[in-house]
Design goal:
The complex is a heterodimer of chains A (291) and B (196). With 291 residues, chain A is an alpha/beta fold. Chain A is built from 13 helices and 8 strands. The two termini of chain A are 35 Å apart. In chain B, helix 1 runs antiparallel to helix 6, helix 7 packs antiparallel against helix 8 and helix 8 packs antiparallel against helix 9. The relative contact order of chain B is 0.11. Classes of the chains: A alpha/beta (291), B mainly alpha (196). Chains A and B meet through helix 2, helix 3, helix 4, helix 5 and helix 8 of A and helix 5, helix 6, helix 7, helix 8 and helix 9 of B.
Chain lengths: 291, 196
């Protein structure tokens, strides 16, 4: 199997720590993937929701490039890219008229796509391909006693639930437990963070983030663990605005699942870019007794 | 009695809406709505909506789609797909919401204070130009169009991100050849507005 890695726009700068930790963890676990050369935007919701055909075309260029380069699948760690690229795949397969139009557009650029690329989330890869045995064997720092709230958000299981349950996903809980960390019962694990509403309807989005922070805190979590760049950004970068709007005093660090696993695998915090967090994550790890 | 132009428009709107929804894979299931309200109960933002997701379909059936298009409802959808995942009739309400967004833009009906159409418009312009999202340019363009004062409010956020190397200064872009491919592909698409 030949795997193409698709970072997605968010992982290039504002969520660079996610990209760095995905690459580090994959390397350490011997999972080979090569970045898809010259990939472009997935056709994200802000695009696809208002200009559908163009978005499918922009999205399909990535699938066409991957097919041209003889990859078997595209691996992404961004839940929004995951859903959008998957949606393009599904709709091209199910709607002949759309397929013809997208084929014509790709053809104008000397490209073609026959539908042979699978789109997968890196969480799926870690839990189901790399697996428990290989990961546990490489854990050098047990995270014993670390209480984590696995936060899945929306688009990792909806609408295309392939590797986990849309209502009660458990894959991240499992993965984190393999590091010795203790996943708490987080009842809002699939509740929306507000996504782009943080820019267009901030009052509504801030209230969604407040509820997530409150539930995770009440559940005893020291850390919220995410699998999506937008979830991470909304929960972390807007935490101070939540505090001033609702007179709360949340100081809950938000890490990507790859940072947590990466720490257990022995990477220095700098390599996982844990020091780039706005709400400091390092004290949580430094406070661990295990070794 | 002859139909007024307003009535004609509404009928046409209804027809275009239904045709487009039917072209979504599984879109015809919109006919199966039993008004149970599972969508509205599952929606994390329905409390802030003028019309809840269930009411959208009720309004459509009552021939009042224009009211929905003028409401804040479509722009409060965060695309979390909770409604679609839980609908007992299998209605893809998130896709229906997207169709409403496209119609509201095509017919120029969206609420004047809705800023989300601006965000999408600027987002599309940035992607078509660079092939990737240039976050700083996007947010600057969006706020200049929607609320220049919002830019000032964003400054502390921007500075904190900048200090941690998480604020892009220069836009990321794909190769010149890639950008040309995108231009050629988009030239074949005629979906500037609500039509597909």
């Amino acid at each position: 199997m030949k795997h193409a890695y698709y970072p997605g726009c968010s992982l290039m700068v504002s969520n660079k720590p996610y990209d760095a930790s995905v690459r580090a963890v994959a390397r350490k676990l011997g999972y080979e993937m090569a970045e898809l050369v010259d990939w472009n935007c997935c056709g994200a919701t802000a695009y696809m929701s208002v200009r559908e055909l163009s978005a499918f075309v922009v999205s399909a260029r990535n699938l066409a490039l991957a097919e041209q380069l003889k990859f078997d699948d595209i691996i992404t760690a961004c839940s929004a890219c995951y859903t959008t690229l998957n949606k393009t795949n599904h709709y091209l397969a199910e709607n002949p008229r759309l397929r013809a139009r997208v084929a014509a557009a790709l053809d104008a650029a000397g490209l073609g796509y026959s539908g042979g690329i699978q789109v997968r989330h890196f969480l799926d890869v870690m839990v189901n391909d790399i697996g428990q045995e290989a990961i546990k064997a490489k854990v050098v720092r047990k995270l014993t006693g670390l209480k984590v709230a696995p936060y899945y958000g929306c688009q990792i299981t909806r609408p295309f639930a392939t590797f986990d349950d849309p209502e009660q996903p458990t894959s991240m809980d499992l993965l984190l437990s393999w590091t010795g960390a203790e996943p708490v019962t987080f009842s809002l694990k699939t509740r929306c963070c507000g996504g782009m509403l943080m820019s267009t309807y901030p009052k509504v989005a801030l209230d969604l983030v407040r509820a997530l922070l409150a539930h995770a805190t009440d559940a005893g979590a020291q850390l919220i663990v995410t699998a999506c760049p937008l979830c991470q950004l909304n929960l972390e970068a807007y935490q101070s605005q939540v505090n001033s709007r609702f007179a709360t005093n949340f100081a809950l660090p938000i890490a990507y699942f790859t940072q947590v696993v990466g720490y257990a695998l022995g990477f220095p915090t700098k390599e996982l870019m844990l020091h780039k967090a706005l709400v400091p994550t390092e004290p949580v790890f430094a406070g661990l007794r295990g070794g | 009695m002859p139909a007024t132009s307003r009535e004609l428009d509404l009928n046409r709107l209804r027809q275009v809406f239904l045709e487009n929804v039917y072209s979504i894979p599984g879109g015809e299931k919109i006919d199966l709505c039993i008004q149970c309200g599972t969508c509205s109960g599952s929606c994390p933002t329905s409390a802030a909506m003028d019309y809840t997701p269930r009411e959208i379909i009720a309004a459509f059936r009552a021939g009042m789609l224009d009211r929905v298009l003028r409401s804040n409802t479509l722009w409060l959808c965060a695309s979390c797909y909770s409604c679609a995942a839980r609908c007992p009739s299998g209605i893809k309400l998130t896709d229906v919401m997207y169709e409403l967004k496209r119609l509201a833009i095509a017919y120029g009906l969206y609420a004047p204070n809705a800023t989300a159409p601006n965000l999408s418009k600027e987002f599309i312009a940035v992607i078509n130009k660079y092939g990737r999202n240039a976050e700083t340019e996007l947010m600057t363009r969006y706020h200049l169009k929607s609320s220049p004062l919002g830019l000032v409010g964003l400054a502390p956020f921007g500075l904190r991100m900048l200090a941690r190397g998480r604020l892009p200064i220069t836009p990321d872009s794909i190769s010149p050849q890639g950008r040309q491919q995108i231009r050629k592909m988009l030239d074949t698409c005629q979906d500037g507005g609500g039509q597909r």
